């Protein structure tokens, strides 16, 4: 594990922090405690204050005892971490296997001002480095958005030439405080297919194992038909929206949503232009037609 780039000198120890965005199904602040041991910069403790699976390590370079936090009882992982840095740092260092360093910390505790700086910079990283995704729905037509009680299900065939991929995206949307908010996103792409819990919230991103899931659009439709969407919305961080989902209405509309989803795939699959292929998709042609209509109306 690399040392975090945000560092603060605490005397006998040094604090290093980084915000980890690269973990697709989780994210959060990583706070490390370093010290010189036999002349080597050594990681003594590590606190991974993640959204989903927060945990901490005693002696990552020694016996590396990893323990998970109970989010129900500990409060926020970073708040728990700061409380233990203030009150239990020496004993935690001792358990990590560094008795001499623990004795130094007991004799010369890290100052309150240093710990206040650690907390301030940590909270700044948490606030400013969070990974979120805001899809633009550039190719989603109004006619492909289905109102289902308090949620909407939008179908969009996406072309991604930058990664040489394409496929249907299913967006589960709602209105929160007057804003169009995406609760779930299922990106059933040819390559790298994945789905998001709360793209603009926690952005838990899970990549399908197509060996076990099978065809990803079929898997997604099956989740709707099996009644799992309410639970998925709840996991995305929107429990009140989940509680108000009209399951009977959703199931009554699924045949039409399913039909249109596979119809969009049939209409668009393989239509992504290449260097030698300038064919345009149905959505592109509709956009051009609307533009021409506006130009004619202006004459």
Q: How would you characterize the overall build of this protein?
A:
This protein is of the alpha+beta class and 299 residues long. The chain folds into 2 domains: 6-128; 142-297, no CATH class. It is built from 11 helices and 12 strands. It has helices at 71-74, 77-87, 89-95, 99-107, 112-128, 210-213, 216-225, 229-235, 239-243, 247-268, 282-297; strands at residues 6-9, 14-20, 28-37, 40-50, 55-58, 65-68, 145-148, 151-160, 165-176, 179-189, 194-197, 204-207. The strands form 2 sheets. A 6-stranded antiparallel β-sheet has the order 1-2-3-4-5-6, covered by helices on one side. Strand 7 and strand 8 form a beta hairpin. Helix 2 runs antiparallel to helix 5 and helix 3 runs antiparallel to helix 4 (99-107). It is elongated.
Mean pLDDT, all residues: 92
Taken together, the total number of domains comes to 2
Report Rg: 25 Å
Largest sheet: 6 strands, antiparallel
Strand content: 25-35%
Give the neighbour order of strands across the main sheet: 1-2-3-4-5-6
The structure class reads: alpha+beta
What is the distance, rounded to the nearest whole angstrom, between the alpha carbons of the first and last residues?
65 Å
What's the short story on this structure?
The protein is an alpha+beta fold and 299 residues long. Helices cover 37% and strands 28% of the residues. The strands form 2 sheets. The chain has a 6-stranded antiparallel β-sheet with strand order 1-2-3-4-5-6, with helices on one face.
